Amino acid sequence: MSQHSESRRNFLRQLSCTLCAGGASAFIPQLELISSAAAQATVPGYRALVCVYLAGGNDAWNMVVPYDQTRYDIYRTSRSGTYDATTNPGGLALARPANTNQNIVNGADTYFMHPALAELRTLYNQGKLALLPNIGTLVRPITKAEYNATPAARPPQLYSHNDQEEFWHLGRTSSFNRGWGGLVADRVRGENVYQALSPCISIGGANRFEIGAQTFPYQMSSGGVSSLSGIGTTGASSQRATALQQLLDASYTSPYQQEYATILERSRDLYGVLNAGLATGGVGNIATTFPANNSLADQLKMVARMIKLSKRLGAGIEHKRQIYYVRFGGFDLHDNLIANNGHQNLLQRVSQALNAFWTALGEIDAFARDEVTTFTMSEFARTLSTNGNGSDHGWGSVQMVMGGKVQGGRFYGTFPDQALNGTVSFSRGQTIPSTSVDQMAATLARWMGVTSATELNTIFPNLPNFASSDLGFMLP
Known about the structure:
- This protein is an alpha/beta fold.
- 38% of the residues lie in helices and 12% in strands.
- Helix 4 (118-125) crosses helix 11 and helix 10 (295-311) packs parallel to helix 11 (342-364).
- The longest helix is centred in the middle third of the chain and has 24 residues, at 255-278.
- It is globular, with a radius of gyration of 24 Å.
- Residues 1-36 have low confidence and may be disordered.
């Protein structure tokens, strides 16, 4: 009998005992976990998603640019010409490279990537990075005529940072208190051994993306976990530690007091496991050098360390499914998009950080690159036209997916016509998305083990409005 079959058998036996004993309060959560057991059976082994959130609205149209002269000229015109600090300081277009070193190919079409993305261009050409052009929040597919005639068909609060970030995190276009990452984790966490550690781990702070029905993100910093202040092994700190332990060991008649003690005790136990693994010489250490003075790299290094610790047998965690969240801001470039290398510096940090993370996954073990999929999200792209020194809030954008199981080296979706006020754009070049957040997220959820159409439609209620729930960029 396989380990997975035995796990499911034990789970169902325990569930039957719970129901026969009249444990009605446990009934609904346990039913939720039935789908977890089924999902884990279809995709055995470790799998992790890493969400890299580019906060502020990344100007993605300067990440990937058409290379052929006709389409490049449309791009350059819409971006108010090529930037020149003296003769055209308001221009946002990148110069077309004289050589083809920056080029990438998608089918019969040729593009070039921003020169700051050298590492990611290499990963794309190696087939480990895919690009999703013109993706954004959608209720359903919508034409420009429908946008103008039917306001209800539009996602609400377009161009609003807070609202559009929330919709990316939720995987839907209406208010909700749970994110699609957390809902996926609810369904696939069943075989994680150390359940005290949430399958959702944030190095980037609080977020809605990782909140599920039974899952709440465990937050930590890029420096690791923090201990209780003033609690130690000598002097007054030792006395405080003894007093705290006495409080935790006491019995309380109030359920609130007892639950508080239980949570604190569990938190201390979790700290002990993580701190031991992440300490100098612990199993969670890696040798890969990450770029300095790069907050995204610092966060991704901690993700790599946590993945190594979580996968290691005997280290106390042994998770099979994890979802990580990191955050890198500064992309709201209404000013200095090109001037002072504003956008270039941000993209360079992203490229170098993701490349170091890719290297670290190769260090962890022979399987880690195939077991971890990293993807970007951002509220929206920017207007193609200039505001004089930068760009303003747009809609459709370009996102990236990186991993050993990614069928990279190609685009998934339609690169838009970049003419201002064109068939899929408005007067300032805000493009109407041709691919929805829901489709990208559902493809990733399916790879994590949520293969039921019913489950996917529950997590992403707008998903049935689109032709496909699987964009095809993930291998099994």
